[in-house]
Amino acid sequence: MPALQAETVSVRFGGVVAVDRVSLSVERGAITGLIGPNGAGKTTIFNVFGGLQPPTEGRVLLDGKDITRVKAHTRARKGMARTFQRLEVFGTLSVRDNIRVAAEIRKAWARDRSRPAAVAEELLDRIGLRDVAESRVDAVPTGTARLVELARALATRPSLLLLDEPGSGLDQQETTVLGDLLLDLAAEGMAVLLVEHDVELVMRVCDRVNVLDFGRLIAEGTPAEVQADPAVQAAYLGAEEGDADEDLEEAGVR
Ligand SMILES: Nc1ncnc2c1ncn2[C@@H]1O[C@H](COP(=O)(O)OP(=O)(O)O)[C@@H](O)[C@H]1O
Ligand SMILES: [Mg+2]
Fold first, then answer.
1. Which ligand is nearest to the CA of 86?
2. Quick one: which atom of ligand 1 is closest to the CA of 37?
3. Residue 184 C-alpha to ligand 2 middle, in angstroms?
4. I need a labelling partner for 104 at 20 to 30 A (CA). Which of 7, 11, 69, 240 fits?
5. What H or E segment, with its residue span, contains residue 224?
């Protein structure tokens, strides 16, 4: 049974159909990719999974149970952690304290014997943030802040990790480290949903890839299958042409 499933989920904003009857599964011990051009509906369905966006129709299942109407904070207690496309960190706190606060919040509801300070130290090493542990998060590069956000998510000890564009703002080396970390987490049994703009990263680490275009799921398969799919190629070429037009407009050429 998949860890997380969307069953014919649609989201409409007024006249805009942001997500159109999408069904997809996120398996345990694997990385599931979700890609698509800008505006395809990735963040919207991501928010449906996280409980921040109620679907207009369809269901969300966690371990086979309907959680469509379960609130975001309750999903967190059921093992779901997420990062945001727009960074969510405490800028005035140090990297270490950001991670520790997340571990403390978890301890408050899990009521277990975990030690937040020890969890923070472990994650500083695991994510490679030891050198910037004392830095305020608003003083570190965006790529580093993204890794802090990921460390905060992991500090809640999730079994299911949802990531919205974790690669944005990361340099080549940070992206490689991120990819390796996600592969390790999946190998340990975690279910990872990776919404990502960086197609190279997705193709390297994902077991299965889902492709959205204009709110519709146009392809699902292994990275190789998806890359070879003419519909996927057309969606990306179309998007690139659109971007080029916008760029030209902005430059005053049109
Ligand atoms: N809160 C909202 N209200 C109205 N339209 C929205 C809202 N959020 C997203 N949309 C629209 O839904 C579509 C999908 O957006 P989004 O899920 O952010 O795409 P992606 O993450 O793939 O770039 C876009 O057309 C976007 O303008
Ligand atoms: Mg998005």
1. 2
2. 22
3. 25
4. 69
5. helix 223-227
CA distance 135 to 120: 14
8-state DSSP, 84: -
**What pLDDT digit, counting tens, does each position of 87-135 carry?**
677 788 999 999 999 999 888 888 888 899 999 999 999 999 999 999 9
Relative to the alpha carbon of 18, which ligand is closest? 1
Instruction: Determine the average pLDDT of the residues in 14-31.
Output: 97
Return the structure tokens found at 179: 């990819």
Do both 59 and 23 map to the same domain?
Answer: yes
Checking DSSP bridges between strand 65-66 and strand 57-62, what pairing results, if any? Answer: antiparallel
What residue numbers bound the domain in which 220 lies? 1-79+160-254
pLDDT at 242 over 70: no
Do both 73 and 112 map to the same domain?
Answer: no
Atom of ligand 1 nearest to the CA of 41: 17
Closest CA to 194 of 54, 57, 32, 56: 32
Give the residue whose CA is nearest to atom 5 of ligand 1.
Answer: 13
Looking at 110, 125, 157, which one is the last position of a domain? Answer: 157
Pocket around ligand 1: residues whose beta carbon is below 6 Å from it?
Answer: 13, 16, 18, 36, 38-44
| Average confidence (pLDDT) over 60-79 | 95
For residue 11, what pLDDT is reported? 98
**Residues making up the chain, counted from first to last:** 254
